[in-house]
Specification:
Elements: E1 24-28, H1 32-38, H2 42-62, H3 67-98, E2 100-104, E3 107-112, E4 118-123, E5 127-131, E6 133-134, E7 140-146, H4 154-157, E8 172-176, H5 179-196, E9 202-203, E10 210-212, E11 224-225
Helix pairs in contact: 1-3, 2-3
Length: 226
């Protein structure tokens, strides 16, 4: 029998059954390798400990310390680095495994959490804008700016939050292998929501990779945990 805490979900990634007239358009999860690098900064931690090991070796030889003492210090630094990087990579893998991004024809749903599961429902009318940032491999992030007074605390979103946006936190779909295609789907739904709310839709240039449907008042209330 599986112990997965999400086994009881009526629909994967969703807090309940979809109401009549709502259906799933797309579901996906982050790439754990990219998440380890972009969110956990595992590569920087690896570089730090690599530099520390090099410094211990060079400094030890320069000060004529015993070889066994130099080697022991370098080994301890190396082991500490492996443990730290391993924990970061392991958390990135677990987080990617327990994260599901869902686009329906009515809302964006973010379900994540390794130890404590959280689920946020964000109706499209509460989205003020969405941006796309893609790397050379096509893996990218889609930060979402909330409008209409909707707000979710940064700690509740992390690591699925736009970095450094503490005052006005922005949910973010991170490390998506098919980010551009997902952005197109989201853009289409934001246009539909903007027309339904009788708000002008403005799509910025592809270079800016920003979609702005205009500010619309929430029709289904503010985003809330389930």
């Amino acid at each position: 029998m599986s112990n997965n805490e999400h086994d009881g979900e009526p629909i994967r990634g969703l807090p309940g059954y979809l109401p009549a007239g709502e259906h799933i358009l797309w579901q996906g999860s982050p790439d754990w390798r990219t998440l380890a690098r972009s969110a956990m900064k595992a590569h920087w931690v690896a570089l730090y400990f690599g530099g520390l090991v090099t410094w211990n070796l060079v400094n030890g030889l320069a000060t004529s310390r015993p070889i066994d003492e130099i080697a022991m210090t370098a080994v301890f630094s190396l082991l500490a680095g492996l443990v730290c990087v391993g924990l970061l990579v392991g958390y990135a893998w677990a987080n990617a495994r327990t994260t599901v991004y869902t686009l329906t024809n009515k809302r964006f749903v973010l379900r994540h959490g390794v130890a404590l599961s959280k689920c946020f429902n964000i109706p499209y009318p509460t989205i003020a804008s969405a941006q796309l940032k893609v790397d050379a491999k096509g893996v990218g992030d889609i930060p979402i700016s909330l409008g209409g007074g909707a707000k979710i605390a940064y700690p509740h979103l992390w690591p699925h939050a736009r970095p450094w946006k503490f005052v006005s936190p922005q949910p973010m779909m991170r490390a998506l292998p098919d980010a551009a295609a997902v952005a197109e789907r989201l853009s289409a739904q934001l246009q539909i929501a903007a027309r339904a709310a009788d708000k002008p839709f403005v799509a910025e240039s592809a270079r800016a990779a920003t979609v702005r449907p205009g500010l619309a008042k929430p029709s289904d209330g503010q985003p809330a945990t389930a």
